[in-house]
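Justification of computing resources. Each target in the renewal requires a structure prediction run like the one illustrated here; the chain below, 457 residues long, is used simply to show the kind of job we budget for.
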Amino acid sequence: MLELKQTQKLSPVLTQQLQQAIKLLQLSRLELMDAIELELQENPILELEEREPKDEAPEEEAPTADKDEVAEWLDRYSPSEDYVPQEERERPDYENMLRKTTNLRDHLRFQAGLAELDQGERIIAEWIIENIDDNGYLAFPLSELSEVSGFAAEELEAVLHKIQKLDPPGVGARDLQECIMLQYEARGRRDPIFEEVVGSHFDLFQKANVKEIVKQTGYSLETVKEVFEKVKEYDPKPGRNFSDDFTSYVSPDVYVVKTENGFEVFLNDDDLPELKMNRYYVDLYLNKATSQSTKNYIKKKVTQAEWFMKSIQQRQKTLYLVSKSIVAFQMEFLEKGLRFLRPLILKDVAQDVGVHESTVSRITTSKYMSTPHGVYEMKFFFPTGINKEEGRPLSTNVVMDLISEMIKQEDKRTPLTDDEIVSLLRERHTIKIARRTVAKYRDTLNISSSRERGILD
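Resulting structure tokens:
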């Protein structure tokens, strides 16, 4: 028998206002200014604050309840007192703002934002995208990402497959074979011979051992050579086309300045307009002659304006608190430099600030922090870690810096091999990593192999 029953169920619903607040979190300063300009155009209640004394209450008589309600609207929003006034802010040397930029990860983030990913998958996607190097490869094994992120390797693997379907084809590959096969699959064609040669005999393929491939597959020499020609159509470094070859100036969102009281955080509020509600519409609302439909419209727009201003204020407050937390965690880096950058995960900052990890991920997206050592993307302060045999883990940035220094100081006649670098890292710094990891770091640093360096020198 069919039976109708009513049940109560709690489920999270993102209202339009909450969606707007979340969107504002991840906007860059320029994007935020564009969003404010758009809101000013669309909502007549909003106008720019001119820092003048507030007008006196209108002379028209109106119901006390209405007056109180409107007065509450006007007073409910005020600039936050958490931030130092602009005139008191110390500015770093603008020469420090000269930096190379790359657009690959931003390109991937944009696509991931349009992909069908749930909230948990979006956080994982951010981890994966941040660890894709400029050539388009995943820079670290999923096992390492699992250790530092806290996500299971299976979860990372599932989201990685979704990232690998984004543009450019081949992005997110873990090695050259996977990179080629991802590009092959993106073309949507079926070629069983190509799949067998590249998919099952790649070691021989890399060695250009055509005769052995012919022997093991039974294909003719001409057929195997055709596969070699087809592979030339694929890009071994799909991410490099997204690298900028020009130098650009970055305007930081946050300044970290050393003062007598230690390192202090100041938000860059330059050119960020302050908003207020338009008094004309308030007076119109209080006027007895105003129709109820007009009053309803004004009240709706006031509510929208209030939400927008609160969302901006919350964005600034979150940026400030997250920045303070990063400074606290990375104090040694600020005092001593890159070698002292420590591994850090979103969860650490989220727990410190008292927000969700996704909030930290969004507020650090497309934001820059000016420090005594230069200007860095805020994501820079969340490096993965390498375990040491003694002492606390080191960030991957530090390990890459050590490798770079070793190679700079090597005997050019006998360049250091990856195995020798592995041994030196263990002997000098008690760092234990695999040879393939050293090779990945070298590739990220655009440093050739020892054999190629020997030939060049």
